[in-house]
Amino acid sequence: MPRQQINLEPYRDDIITLYHHGISSDSISRTLESCHNIQVKERTIQSRLRKWGIRKRHRTTTGDEALHARIKMLFIQDRLTDKAMLNMLQKEGYAISERTLRRLRFKLGLHARASDQEQHQHQEQDQMQKQMIVPQPRAEGTAGVNLTCWN
Predict the structure, then answer these.
(1) Where is the Clr5 domain (predicted)?
(2) Where residue 59 falls among pLDDT bands split at 50, 70, 90?
(3) Which of 12, 48, 56, 100 sits a CA distance of 20 to 30 A from 87?
């Protein structure tokens, strides 16, 4: 004979509110027992929350096409840095972290480019390293000088 399912629908709003306030499933089950005389396991609370589609974390990266489009526009047209994009998106109401923004930007194929000044500095450094060739004496018995790069 299958177990009798506990009807938690009358307490659904309370359970969800407690969960969103950071109360653990175990504490919620103890609260239901002490306040409403309902014995329910922690796993039951967790499975009901899943069944009701309740999650603690916002899943911004997977399905929010509007967010994807906004990030593309801020990156390509407005040429904002990650920090500026993050501030803008958070002001617009998106719950997104800096790490999630960076991960999503890479997923969308939006790779940060160095500024013209940074690119010029890197080119100068590369040229200087190529010019830093230091003559090294060869081992005894060999003629000439061995040229090696100095790092």
Answers:
(1) 7-56
(2) low
(3) 56
Closest CA to 133 of 110, 150, 119: 150
**Residue 63 pLDDT > 80, yes or no?**
no
Distance CA 9, CA 7 (A): 6
Q: pLDDT, tens digit, for every residue of 73-93? A: 999 998 899 999 999 998 988
CA R_g for the chain: 30
Residue recorded with tokens 């307490």: 11
Which pair of tokens denotes residue 145? 């000088």
Q: Which residues pair with 133 in a beta bridge?
A: 149
Please tell me the predicted confidence (pLDDT) of residue 88: 93
Mean pLDDT of 45-50: 93
Query: DSSP code of 139?
Result: P
pTM for this one? 0.42
SS3 of 38-93: CCCCHHHHHHHHHHCCCCCCCCHHHHCHHHHHHHHHHHHCCCCCHHHHHHHHHHCC
Judged by DSSP in three states, 8 sits in coil
